[in-house]
Design a protein that fits this description.
Strand content: 15-25%
Number of strands: 8
Structural class: alpha+beta
Number of helices: 4
Largest sheet: 6 strands, antiparallel
């Protein structure tokens, strides 16, 4: 069985964020990190070389594949800030309508800038994602 590519590391989140060349993206990452830390009650940890995750859960699929993953996470990708959220896009259509400018695919929410979205709605979506993960992977 193949090892999961993305694992928690001991690398510094602060050092990672400080190396983001775009200052606006840096500020957005710090703001999202603060939101996720407040919601999860867990400090940020690096997962792989470019994902900042909060808390963790263990999954095991029917295929036998298993591993650990952050409960919620984000990554400052080149084209957008990517937030890794589960169970929110189809289950919370009203919140998605209130969010603002974004795109999404599976468990990823892509935003160009934090100023493009309604922050209180984003916080609600993060909370709902945390609840979903905790319920699905107790």
């Amino acid at each position: 069985m193949a090892e999961p590519k993305t694992k928690q590391t001991m690398d510094s989140v602060a050092a990672f964020i400080s190396k983001i060349p775009d200052e606006a993206r840096q500020r957005d990452c710090l703001a999202v990190a603060k939101m996720m830390e407040e919601i999860t009650g867990h400090e940020p940890k690096m997962w792989g070389s470019s994902i900042v995750g909060f808390d963790s859960y263990h999954y095991k699929y029917a295929s036998g594949r298993e591993g650990d993953s952050p409960v919620v996470a984000f990554s400052p990708r080149k084209g957008s800030l990517t937030l890794y959220l589960m169970g929110v896009f189809d289950n919370h259509e009203e919140l998605m309508k209130k969010l603002g400018k974004y795109t999404n695919a599976k468990g990823c929410l892509y935003i160009k800038s934090l100023s493009d979205v309604h922050a209180p709605t984003l916080k609600k979506l993060i909370r709902e994602s945390v609840k979903y993960v905790k319920k699905t992977y107790p």
